[in-house]
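Assemble and predict.
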Amino acid sequence: MNRPVPPGDNPTADPMALFIERAEQVGMSVITVGTYDEAVERAVALCRERRVQRAALWDTPEMDPIRDRLLAEGVEVLDPRGSFETLAGAEIGITRAEWGVAETGSLVISTGPGKPQAASLLAPLHLAVLRSDRIVPELATLLERSDPLPSALVLITGPSRSADIGLVPVLGAHGPMEVAVLVVMASQGR
Amino acid sequence: MKPVALFVTCLVDQLYPRVGEATVRVLERAGCAVAFPAEQTCCGQAAFNNGFQEEARVLGRRFLDVFADAPAIVAPSGSCADMVREWYPHLFRDEPALGVLARSVASRTYELSEYLVRVLGVDDLGARFPATVTYHPSCHGLRGLGLREEPLGLLRAVRDLRLVELPDAGQCCGFGGFFSIKFAALSGAMLSVKLDNIEASGAEVVTATDVSCLMHISGGLSRRGSRVRALHLAEILAGS
Amino acid sequence: MTNRPPRIDLIRNVERALRDASLQRQMGKAMPASRKARADVVAELPEWESLRSTAAGIKDHVLANLESYLRQLESQVSALGGTVHWASGAAEARAIITDLARSRGVRRIVKSKSMTTEEISLNAALEAAGARVVETDLGEYVVQLAGERPSHLIAPVIHKPTEEIADLFVRKLGVPRYERPEELARVAREVLRAEFLAAEMGITGVNFAIAESGTLVIVENEGNARLTTARPRIHVAVMGIEKVLPRMADLSVFLRILARSGTGQRASVYVSLLTGPRRAGETDGPEELHLVILDNGRRRLLADPGLRTALRCIRCGACQNECPVYRHAGGHAYGSVYAGPIGAVLTPAYEGMERARDLPFASTLCRACADVCPVKIDLPGMLVELRARAVRTGLAPWRDRMLVGAWTFFMRSPARFMLAGDLGRLAQRLVARGGKIERLPYPLSGWTAHRAAPALASTPFRAWWKSRQGGPR
């Protein structure tokens, strides 16, 4: 079957710089750190700053140091396998982002056991940890890979928004009001 | 001298003959020998756009007959030129001989400004028109024929003419042939937006390539008691 | 078959819309802003025209191989543990979904925005079956509270100013009167959170369905579709047959053109790629996934060479945003689910020309819609075709026949043409003043209701030409 081939984007020389620019344009805050240890520090600092009492973290290896530090600070770290109702009580959800897409400033969030959608959906603040070498110039690159698909893969480009009421843009219509991205430089990352 | 057959169009003939006169002067100034085949009437667009394709074919056959041998057919109307170019081949696609003729005639039919600029390569006719002018791009010319720069280039070459931009220029004026009567209030509302934009431009004169739009616009300007005049592009280029 | 609803009285609807100052104000603000947003974000992509052609090509390829891709989709979804249901028409689709709700003991349903579910009038059927259905898209929620229909493909409540929404919330939710959109949105968020947590079934539309993987793609900005598909134990996705795409790799073109065309964004906030129900060990996602694949007149449209390209439509709403008729008429005037230029084609196609005969005529054929359609649907060409069909099947009004008949009669020869002119010049002596006529009789009175008419010139062009031939330049 003869199928037309989508034209490629102009491959950007610096996907990370473009990603940061575009992610910020859609209202996400992006913090770049050199090592994973710094990322952990920043995540904990953010929770402290926001007086987080309950946090929803994915149950994945890179979350362990963050969980341990938060528990040490007296934050209740909710079981990611817990109920929606419970997870809805979190002030922050912390997840990994599988990929970043530079063209649109998007995060790609996968799901799986211990990695619920709820963590990037329910709390008013979503923090995503993204390795710098997982930033690609365009979505087409990812869609052409034949990675097995999870039950839900979500492309996130900014905080939840709506302009339905009076044409005035409002954040946090249903999903998070704020999205922050911790970009960890690849050489020292996990 | 380039021989050109003028398709003056029914509206110009009966309502705005000065536009026809100006068109002739402009073409002659550009080095054309203008013929006017007197058997011509109407391109049939009004019938066609209203769904009456048989009636349009009747008028189309006459047009093709009248202009069959014309080397170039020039009309002071983007919508009529578009009708011939875009729709005659479609209207006669099931008739072998007329289909061929329709495609042939279509390929030789032009709106005035596109003929001057794209075919003759002329954009300065030595005209003078001291006024502030804004240009309304008639839809069929703009999106049907792709007329963008041609009329503007011609206007910029006119001495003492100050060209000002029309806000939201590409929005339809609301004429649309019988639409203006079938959906009169809607047509009036679209006209009102266009008139507001014309007034906002600060122009003394609004011009276009089609008297259909201009008839509708000037009718509205008149009701508003506006001092803005509506003139066809040919009238400005003829320096009148 | 079904009892035929009455003819859509478009002219009256439009006149009513024109008298609605609030609607005119809202549309006058919203449409130019939407157009500008689209133009700006499209200007960023030098390859835009190429993307349009590619997208149109993929859609045409799908339409030419539709049954095979649908079968592939079905097989993939089934292999993932989902259930595929085929609905030939609206009634069958309603029955499938209400039976499902009944058999699973569903009493509370949340829905995210879906024009397809509007098309089949699903909510009323579910309510009749004893389930409570709550629309969760902010605009759709407001529309539901108000008991109205959405008026725009993308912005359902574009016709309602904030003050009216504030009053509505007071009346229907018993909350204090909030003035600001953020406050109203906050109220809705809380109310709807509770609904998501309580619902047993979530119903969504489908923007694209990928045949090769069985993936359903849902595009949104608010997050309510994610909640609708993550929390309730049953997910029912309703899609028209034309929504299928061959491969994941084809999706990127469409995601690039959809948000840019519809809302002037580079990307919508959330794109959910859902591949099967929840898997072992997962704690969100539906336990049961049902995909309802709807025909409802689409295969008939597919078999219609003059109109089939309308099935390329990705429901972006760009044609509505560009259309000056839509800007003044608003969505409700079109009397059906789909409004604006695409509505003027789909409503006659799906509901019949008898009912929708005026819709194709409500256009000046300005072509603004065709210019912006990301999948290059020749909407003006289809309007012309539908008008011709209306005339051929005897649906043209008597006045049109009279006007066009008279026009054609007098245009058939120069002699008749001149005669018409002479008669007109005679008749206008009584009414022409300063080259203008302020009142024309029926059937042309509509003209002078809104603008002056030009008087016929005393010397038509051809008379001038003839006299000029006597003394050439």
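The mean pLDDT of chain B is 96.
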